[in-house]
Structure formats: structure tokens, C-alpha cells
Amino acid sequence: MAKSSDIDQLSGRRLLQQKLYLPCLTLGSVVILAVIFMPFIGQVGMANPKTAQTIGLWVHFLGGLHPVFLHLPIGALTLVLVMEFLRCLSRGKYKPQTTIGLFFTAVTGVLALIFGYCLYLTGDFEGELIEEHKRDGIIFTVFVILTFLVKYTTDLHPNKKKWKALYVFLLLASGGAMIGAGHHGGEITHGNPLDSLPSKILAARKSHTLDENLVIYTELIHPILEEKCISCHGSKKKKSGLRMDTYRHMLAGGDEGECLVPGDLKKSGLITTLHLPLDDDLRMPPQDKPQLTNDEIKLLEWWVKAGAPETSTLGEIERSAEIDKALESTLGN
Question: Among 193, 205, 236, 306, which is disulfide-ready with 332 (CB 3.0 to 4.6 Å)?
């Protein structure tokens, strides 16, 4: 009786798979076409919360959900890759059911892409790196949907080797696209991870010796901004319309007002936002980002108060013993 029951259960499952195959194939094809044509929908800036109408504001709201969903397809596809690797390692003795995992990857991948595109339409993100991330996200989503559909087909035709070969190819292609999209996304949020290599940090520390010929802005102020600010306010990502990757752009300011007013600490948003409460929306850096040290804040205030010179050296600007101590700590001398 037990064996007969198992057979009936397997037969029922297979009938259900066959019944759902055509709807899944149709829906998957439609979604692939929609994903491909998605970049032609909407205009960058239409979801800017300062100027958007009701539809744009809803797009802005949905864009905030991108961080919630972006890790789900990555984790699910990684699990599928591990399961398939174990299948190969066991020479077929281990037979994981990865179809449902690929279905989950495809669904969450589509959601992450849609919400990511909504975030893109706010206009807070721009530049070559953003475009590459968008491109890789579309490629990843298309590959994942195709991988699911081919795996579904393989389940219904287990003896046809061409479907298995195509499944393996698409699964590996999806993994490659995931790495590319994830790397670019990480660069947008956290900067290039290779910049944190110990060799680079030690080399930078060694090169920044405390001497009177050190150019304050180029060798002291800009590296601080590059580490804590420019990842969100640079050429790749211009949040609130503000760029801080060049002296000229800081003088120009952004949507929230002045960024740098030489000689005036109270009018320089670069300084005032550092002292806001952590939970304040205008606090910079935001509370979920690496914060400036007390010494770094002292140096920025000293520089702005001295007129924020662009080309002056340490020997040309008056400084106190407290500033010298902050310099030694920050430059690693």
C-alpha cells in the first residue's frame, strides 16, 4: 500500500507540473520581454521627491524597497549552485530538487530589478557605474528566468541531454551575471573593495607623512571625503544633487543648499550636517554609514575656518598643537 501511495503521489505531482508548464512558459516569456523593455519606461528624475507628482512619489516609495529584496535572489541562486555542485560531487547520487529554488530566485530577482529601477528613476544615482549595474541586473534577471524555464522543461523531459546541457550553461551564466551585478552594486554603496587591501592602506599611510609641504586639500581633506562622503556624492552617485569629488563641485553646493562656504563654518553644510543627531534625515554621513572621527571633524573645521584653501600647504596655514595631534592621528604618522 505504501509503494502504491508513493506512485500515486508522484503521478499526481507530475500531472500538476505538466498542467502548470504552459502557463509558466507563457508568463516567463512575457516577463522577459517586459524586463528587456523596462529601461524605456519613465524618465530619470520623475521620482524625485522634491518635484514628483503622485505617481512619481509612489515610484520613489517603491525604490526604497530595493535594499529589502536585492539579497534574496543572490542567496537563493547561491544555494542552487551549491546544491548542483554537491550533485556533481556525489556523481548523481545526491539529487536535489532545485526547480522551486530557481522559481524563488526568478520572482525575487524580478522584484529587486523593478524596485531598483524605481530607485534609478529618482535621479539620485547616475554615472557609468550605475548604468553598468542596471545592465547587469537586467541580464541577471533574464538569465535566471530562462534557467528556471529550462529546468522546468528538463524535469518533464529527464532523458533529453540537450536540455540538461542548456540548463547547466544558463545556471553558470546566471551565476556570472549575479557576480557582476553584485560587484557593481557593492561599489555603488561601499566603494571599490580592493581599496581596503592592507597593502594599499599601508602604502597610503606611508605616503602621507606630516611635512610642511603637504597640500592640505589634495592630501588631507580630499582623502577624508573620499572615504566617508564621495561614495554617495561623487560622479557615480550624486545624492541630493551634491558632488564632493572636486573642489569646484563643493563650492556649487546641491539641492539642500551650500556645501562649502570658505571661512564660514555655520553656512557650510559640509560642517553643520556632521553635528546633527544621528537620527536626523539631514545627518551626514547617515547613521548606517561609517562616521568621521573626532580628529577628522576637527581637521575639516580647521580647513574651512582657514578659508578652505585649495592649493595651500601645511606650512602656509596657522595651526595649533591640537590640530597637529589630529594631523598625526589621521595621516598615520
Answer: 205
